[in-house]
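User: Can you predict the 3D structure for this chain?
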Amino acid sequence: MVRPGVEVLIQDSLHLVSGKRVGLVTNHTGIDRNRRSDIDILADHPEVELIALYSPEHGIRGEERAGAAIESGVDERTGLPIHSLYGETRKPTPDMLENVDVLIFDMQDVGARYYTYVSTMALAMEAAGENGIPFLVLDRPNPIRGDVVQGNVLDPEYSTFVGLYEVPMRHGMTPGELARMYVGEFGISVDLTVVPVDGWRRDMTFDDTGLPWVAPSPNMPDVASALAYPGTCLFEGTPISVGRGTDRAFRWIGAPWLDGAVLAEALNGYGIEGVRFEPASFTPTNAGDRKFEGVNVHGVELVAERSDYDASRAAIAMLIETYRMSGDNWAWYQAHFDRLSGTDAIRLGLVAGASFDDLVSSWDSDVRGFETVRAPYLLY
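Assistant: Here is the predicted structure, written as structure tokens:
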């Protein structure tokens, strides 16, 4: 039985918030095993005074499309103010933190460097530290395992909100562990406490935990999409659709000019363990990325045979083959692709015709180095 950090807080560690005025950085993924919201749990608790809420990308209810500015407002049930951290500012201001005695973070990450909830956490940690407010992370499982680390490590010159620090594409850490590393390695100064998940093992995917899956964002419908995301997210910086606006976003890619059968055959020839590529067609609807709205596109679906398959390496193979097949249909969204890649080396290598082995040649040593750095901060 796995208990998320919010349950451990209420059942075992209430002294951390008892009698204090609490600010809560959360969204619809901040729930207990019965799907009860952190907002309601804390607002209704007689020993806790919840005074403010803070909303990330996709909004407090997780319904807004990627990149959409989030408005501040009022929570209908509790009447509490909701301060947007994905609009005019992404970092809580001193006014937003007025009268807060402790700032809590609780959101479900997906285990990939690009996902912005942990960037929101980092900036909230900075603000808490600057204002002398303790910061509390209610931890949650890494849904794509904590014992698998894959992909390249971000070049700090490419630090942005979709990758603030030097971590790999698939980092294998929980939000609480990342917070500890942000303090220990990346210079955030704050009084940090992590309330751990109880009963989680590093070799678990989210499906093994027995916890209810709530799509962290509109195009992250299930764990299969989360497993593919550390790789296929790179296609956001290309003309190829990642399946936004379908029920399998990030599990497949496509474009009108691709031949799915030919592409699948080529990709399966790379011999990437634990995943196979199958021809697929889909039609994006209300996708939000303006790619082929209402158009039937062709490509491949990633079908996982193991939960440790390397989606980042799979993406490099997919990029090589779709770039080759696309000809004049290809156009880089250069700045965004490089932000996601955490480097310009992948894009420049693809343009120069670099081989698969050349493009990933440094990744294994980079991952080993990162695993050494992260080791002191692991909790499970």
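Residues 201 and 380 are 7 Å apart (CA to CA). The longest helix spans residues 311-326.
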